[in-house]
Amino acid sequence: MSVKPPEACETMTDVRAGVDAVDRELVALLVRRFGYMDAAARIKADRVAVRDEARKAEVLANVMREATAAGLVPHRIESVWNELVEQSIAYEFEVWDRLRAS
Predict the structure, then answer these.
(1) Any idea what the CATH number is for the domain that residue 68 is in?
(2) For 6, 7, 25, 41, which has the most beta carbons within 10 A of its beta carbon?
(3) What was the pLDDT predicted at 1?
(4) What mean pLDDT is predicted for residues 11-26?
(5) Residue 29 lies in a domain
(6) DSSP collapsed to 3 states, 23-66
(7) How far apart are CA 6 and CA 102, in angstroms?
(8) Residue 30 in contact with residue 81, Cβ under 8 Å?
């Protein structure tokens, strides 16, 4: 079944197929994003550098600007991105520790 754009959906089956397709795309993008966390953990020589509050603020500001320009509700996107960044930091700590455990 082909996925319809949101404005062409006529049934909940159409909507659900579209949401499922977007979720698959988001997972693929998250795999790529977390790959960059792997790289950061490999590159950063100091564990303290893993949590960078200035960079976190920059990422959130960038996303809020993009979300606003795209017509999204910024506070909803900020909440999602804050959690994404926190989970990314936690993951990077795990990878950093694992790479240096040997």
Answers:
(1) 1.20.59.10
(2) 41
(3) 63
(4) 98
(5) yes
(6) HHHHHHHHHHHHHHHHHHHHHCCCHHHHCCHHHHHHHHHHHHHH
(7) 50
(8) no
Query: Has residue 1 been placed in a domain?
Result: no
Whole-angstrom Cα distance, residue 2 to residue 55?
40
The answer to whether the Cα torsion of 42, 40, 88, 31 is positive or negative is: negative
Q: Count how many domains the chain has.
A: 1
pLDDT in tens, 32-63: 999 999 999 999 999 999 999 999 999 999 99
Could you tell me how many residues make up the chain?
102
Domain hosting 37: range is: 6-99
Residue 45 lies in a domain: yes
Q: Are 81 and 33 in contact (CB under 8 A)?
A: no
Provide the pLDDT confidence category of residue 65 given band limits of 50, 70 and 90.
Answer: very high
- Compute CA 21 distance to the chain's CA centroid, rounded to the nearest angstrom: 17
Query: Rounded to whole angstroms, how far apart are CA atoms 14 and 17?
Result: 5
